[in-house]
Amino acid sequence: MNDVTNGTGDLAVNLRCATKRFSIASNSSILDGIDFKIATGEFVALVGKSGSGKTTLLRILAGLESATSGDVIVPQARTVVFQEPRLIQSMKVWENVVIGIKDVQDLRALAIAALAEVGLETLAENWPAKLSGGEAQRVALARALCRRPKLLLLDEPFGALDALTRLNMQQVVRTLCSRYKPAVLLVTHDVDEALALADRVLVLSNSKIALEVQIEAERPRRMGTGKLLEFRSQLLRSLGVESD
User: Which residues is 13 bridged to in the sheet?
Assistant: First the structure.
């Protein structure tokens, strides 16, 4: 396997025949010969059934797991936002945002600026235990984006939120990604969420990319429109679900 962490030019992610087996000796693969690319500034959503390998693929791109074989080309500057905010309870909100950052003279100022972008600068001195679920996830997003990643990986980041908070967070993510233009991979089981956010949607099924759909619709998107309904039906059929 050639695992290169160097995105080049306008291409941030390039997977070539990436395979992940349960064990080296196993013939059974959770990912089998995956090929796809993500351009700088492109927002791609990856959908699939539970256990299809979506999170495994994201973890390979994040460097948290290795592919068994194939080429994995990603930028060094990449960050992950998980479903759980993963905040350190013994550190204040602003300290969580800049944890691990070095060579910055005023870390608190950097944290406040990042928190302001997600509307939480007034909570900088709070402890994480005092945050709502949506606020905690905004802090996690601020922590990721203040590092100015070339690749932002989102692992079902809204899955634990209520419906209204989820919609608000989608708007925050859409605005910030439009502003900073990282390459984005969103792993989600929610087809409507993928359609609302992504430029392109991939369906992972039977260890392979089974379908790729370019979402040619203006933003903000109204989910009841004809073209989006067609895309939705196409994606659901690929997942084995018959839509109304």
Answer: 38
- Confidence tier at 223 by pLDDT (50, 70, 90): confident
**17 neighbors 35 (Cβ within 8 angstroms):** yes
Residues 6+ apart with CB under 8 A from 1: 66, 67, 68, 69, 70, 71, 72
pLDDT category, 197, cuts 50, 70, 90?
Answer: very high
Helical pair 133-145 and 107-117, crossing angle rounded to 10 deg: 120
**Averaged over 103-130, what is the pLDDT?**
95
Q: Where do the domains of the chain lie?
A: 2-238
What are 47's strand-pairing partners? 203
pLDDT band at 26 (very low <50, low <70, confident <90, very high): low
Q: Which CATH architecture has domain 2-238?
A: 3-Layer(aba) Sandwich (3.40)
Q: What stretch of H or E contains 142?
A: helix 133-145
pLDDT recorded at residue 244: 57
| Rounded Cα distance, 85 and 79, in Å | 13
Q: Which two tokens stand for residue 67?
A: 């592919």
Q: How far apart are CA 74 and CA 24, in angstroms?
A: 23
Q: Residue 168 in contact with residue 180, Cβ under 8 Å? A: no
Q: How far apart are CA 210 and CA 95, in angstroms?
A: 42
Query: Half-sphere exposure (CA, 13 Å, Cβ side) for 104?
Result: 13
HEC secondary structure over 13-63: EEEEEEEEECCCCCCCEEEEEEEEEEECCCEEEEECCCCCCHHHHHHHHHC
> Token pair for residue 49?
């059934």
